[in-house]
Amino acid sequence: MRAYWEEGQSAVSLNELCRRTKVSKPTLYKEFGSEDGLKQAVLSSYFKMTLVPLFELLQQDQPFDKALDALADYILRDHQEHGMPNGCLFVDMCQCRDQLGELAGGQVDAFKALSLTAYEAWIDRAKAKGQFTAAIASRTAAIYIDAQIASAMNLQRQDATADDVSAVFRLSLSVFD
User: Fold this and answer.
1) pTM
2) pLDDT tens profile 56-98
3) Where does residue 4 rank: exposed (0-12), middle (13-18), buried (19+ CB within 10 A)?
4) Is residue 158 within 8 Å of 88, Cβ to Cβ?
5) Is residue 156 within 8 Å of residue 79, measured between CB atoms?
6) Where are the alpha helices (DSSP H) in 47-161?
7) What is the pLDDT of residues 9-55, one digit of tens each?
8) Quick check: 42 and 4 in contact, CB under 8 A?
9) Is the pLDDT of residue 159 over 80?
10) Are the CB atoms for 5 and 83 separated by under 8 Å?
């Protein structure tokens, strides 16, 4: 997972992964079935590590503005401080979806749908409490938030300063003020 996250899933060959992990290709195939199966497993692990906590944050019963601040804090946390590479493996895999096999590609599609559903449900709850304008369709806002997270992760991947990433991301969320 770390190699794909740091270097990109298309930049690390299966042979290189086997070399680094000191695992033979037959062992890898026995465990995951294929490189596509390995990437699917990596995505599942990544989902549990990073996206599940994000979804849990959105499900907390707090005012929308507080939840938006918590979302920003989560997205903008110092990855290095938490032992993680910059950027987002899921965002990277979404951007190169056409290079993935059926299993990993299906996993990306499923996680993207779950993400949009989670954002939309969060916005719907805020609307029900009168904390979000009805003038913006929930689906549109969910897609917008997803795109802004991806943009922030791409800036982080490009080694933009934490202050710059924060300023740009918080500016993008200011449309909800």
Assistant:
1) 0.88
2) 999 998 999 999 889 888 888 877 777 777 788 888 889 889 9
3) buried
4) no
5) yes
6) 52-59, 64-75, 89-95, 102-128, 138-157
7) 788 888 888 888 898 889 988 999 999 999 999 999 989 988 899 99
8) yes
9) yes
10) no
Cβ proximity of 120 and 136 under 8 Å:
no
- Out of 3.40.50.720, 1.10.357.10, 1.10.287.1490, 1.10.10.10, the CATH code matching 2-176 is 1.10.357.10
Judge whether 58 and 67 are in contact, CB under 8 Å. Answer: yes
DSSP count for the chain of H helices, then E strands: 10, 0
Measure the CA–CA gap between 34 and 91, rounded to whole angstroms. 22
Query: Among 166, 135, 123, 76, which residue's Cα sits nearest to residue 174?
Result: 166
d(CA 29, CA 35): 7
- Contacts with 94 (C-beta within 8 Å, 6 or more apart), sequence order: 108, 112, 150
